[in-house]
Design brief:
By secondary structure, the protein is α/β, with parallel strands linked by helices. The chain folds into two domains: 69-194, Threonyl-tRNA Synthetase, Chain A, domain 2 (2-Layer Sandwich); 217-472, Rossmann fold (3-Layer(aba) Sandwich). Helix content is 39%, strand content 20%. It is built from 13 helices and 20 strands. The protein has helices spanning 28-49, 51-67, 70-89, 91-121, 159-163, 166-172, 247-264, 295-316, 339-343, 349-365, 385-388, 402-409, 451-461; strands at residues 5-7, 10-12, 126-128, 131-133, 136-142, 146-152, 177-182, 188-194, 217-222, 227-230, 237-240, 267-272, 289-291, 331-336, 371-377, 393-396, 430-433, 442-446, 465-467, 470-472. α7 (247-264) runs parallel beside α13 (451-461). Residues 466-471 and 473-477 have low confidence and may be disordered. The structure holds adenosine-5'-triphosphate and magnesium ion (MG). Magnesium ion binds next to α7.
Length: 477
């Protein structure tokens, strides 16, 4: 008769070996001591892990036991006074080293509470080999405009997986937006959740520098409140935005940041306003060349710029790889308010071809020779697209469709947080761009130059101009 193997009433198939685990009998006191030791170790671990809550609680408890209510009240009151004095004396260091670290700890508790459901519904939790693996929330850093969450990804995940669900995370954590960037280590990702909006109000213009900093023109403000510095040296700038998005403020901010150089003769502005001249005409005294209706003049000017560039390139060949602007060899910045008017809407085919050819040459070779183009465009889908890739620096203001974001800024940028189609109409001058050294888009607002300020700028900084063979300076004009 075969042996029947029965464990807990279940009949099991015959096994080759039948193993019986030995039963070790220990006295009760030993088990109790073991439980106590285990409990104690766990308590100590928990105490140390949550030191930021347990240590203050112990101190307060000790003071209460020793001095009654007066103890903890005196300590809390004293600390509050100290913090108040610090805040009044040096607000920046108080926020940086006092307030934000505490706020970060506090907010971390909230994030941790919602972390698992948030990760699960965003499908960032991985099921592997019967285990559930969740990305780990490593650190929460509070900033003026929101929180920076450092997260350790599950093996096999990449920052783009988080970027793809950025909008979902935004709503889950009750933020206004979520930007995703790679962390300092390959397994880390940084989620920047924006709460307050430092860009809600119009940004007043920054003072005009006497010598323009071509490696960092101050054009407005970053989301965190810091100044927005944009490099002009060695790049070409394209600004895209729907009508009324504030392209004018970008152009005027660039012109104003260069105005010191215009006065000293280090920078020459050639400005084309093919939409009739209403936007740019007020700055005429600042411009060495200005054209608004005459498309032939614009084509001539672009070809002159190509000639200048070729001549400089020939001279600098073998001497240097980057032209340095001087008063004799100034930087030429060509500003075009509506690029599509030159490259797409122009009906004269011959003129259009001339303009396109000259622009193509300037955009590909101009930067080393000190010839730059700053162009604005309303509709990024039109014929400007072939030129798009020739602009290393691209700024996207409010756009009408989500698909246009990637068209302007590059593939995947909307997923990484550049939600230009969601910028409200009542926030002109707000946009997204990719800054040097950070592949994810940042939200910015450009300074607003109203008509009075533009008139003042034009009056103060106009450079020397040649009119009828005579050199005339701005002050005389
Ligand atoms: N940075 C800014 N901050 C606050 N308000 C702004 C800013 N830029 C523009 N505005 C406001 O928005 C209006 C439209 O801006 P602007 O003329 O620059 O738009 P645009 O993008 O050039 O539009 P269009 O394509 O029609 O020329 C301006 O009249 C001004 O009142
Ligand atoms: Mg405009």
């Amino acid at each position: 008769m075969p042996m029947v193997n029965v464990i807990r009433g279940e009949q099991l198939p015959d096994a080759v070996f039948n193993v019986r685990t030995p039963i070790l009998r220990i006295p009760l006191w030993m088990a109790v001591v073991w439980w106590l030791v285990k409990g104690l170790v766990r308590t100590v671990v928990l105490y140390m892990r949550f030191w930021y809550a347990t240590v203050p609680a112990s101190v307060l408890l000790y003071l209460w036991a020793r001095f009654g209510w007066a103890g903890p009240v005196t300590l809390v009151g004293g600390l509050a006074c100290l913090a108040g004095v610090w805040l009044l004396v040096h607000r920046v260091s108080f926020l940086r080293f006092g307030w934000y670290p505490v706020l970060g700890r506090w907010r971390r508790i909230g994030y941790r509470r919602r972390w698992y459901p948030a990760m699960a519904t965003a499908r960032l939790v991985v099921n592997f080999d019967g285990h559930v693996v969740v990305p780990v929330l490593r650190r929460v850093k509070a900033t003026a405009s929101g929180d920076e969450l450092t997260v350790r990804m599950v093996t096999g995940q990449i920052p783009d997986d988080f970027a793809a669900v950025g909008l979902r995370l935004t709503h889950t954590f009750g933020a206004r937006s979520c930007r995703v960037a790679a962390g300092r280590r390959a397994d880390l990702v940084v989620l920047t959740l924006q709460r307050a909006d430092a860009l809600r109000k119009t940004i007043p213009p920054a003072p005009v520098p006497v010598v323009p900093d071509l490696a960092g023109l101050v054009l407005g403000r970053l989301e965190g409140g810091e100044p927005l510095r944009l490099r002009l040296f060695g790049t070409q700038i394209l600004v895209a935005g729907a009508t009324g998005a504030g392209k004018g403020s970008v152009i005027w901010s660039v012109i104003a940041a260069l105005a010191g150089g215009v006065r000293s003769g280090l920078v020459k502005l050639w400005v084309f306003d093919p939409k009739g001249g209403m936007e740019m005409a007020a700055g005429d005294p600042l411009f060495e060349r200005f054209a608004c209706e005459d498309f032939a003049a614009m084509a001539d000017a672009l070809e002159t710029a190509v000639g200048l560039m070729r001549e400089r390139t020939r001279r600098l060949r073998g001497v240097t790889r980057q032209h340095i602007p001087t008063v004799d060899e100034p930087l030429v910045v060509i500003v075009v308010d509506e690029l599509a008017a030159l490259t797409a809407y122009l009906t004269d085919r011959h003129l259009k071809d001339r303009i396109k050819a000259a622009l193509g040459v300037l955009l590909t070779q101009g930067r080393a020779a000190g010839v730059h183009v700053v162009a604005a465009v309303q509709d990024s889908r039109k014929d400007v697209l072939p030129f798009r890739d020739l602009f290393p620096t691209r700024i996207a203001l409010r756009l009408t469709e989500p698909a246009q974001v990637d068209m302007v800024l590059g593939d995947g940028m909307r997923d990484r947080g550049a939600v230009c189609d969601r910028i409200p109409m009542n926030m002109p001058g707000v946009g997204y761009l990719v800054l040097d050294g950070d592949p994810s888009p940042v939200r910015v607002r450009f300074s607003y130059w109203d008509d009075d300020r533009i008139a003042e700028l034009a009056g103060t900084y106009s450079g020397a101009r040649v009119i009828d063979g005579q050199v005339i300076t701005g002050e005389v004009l």
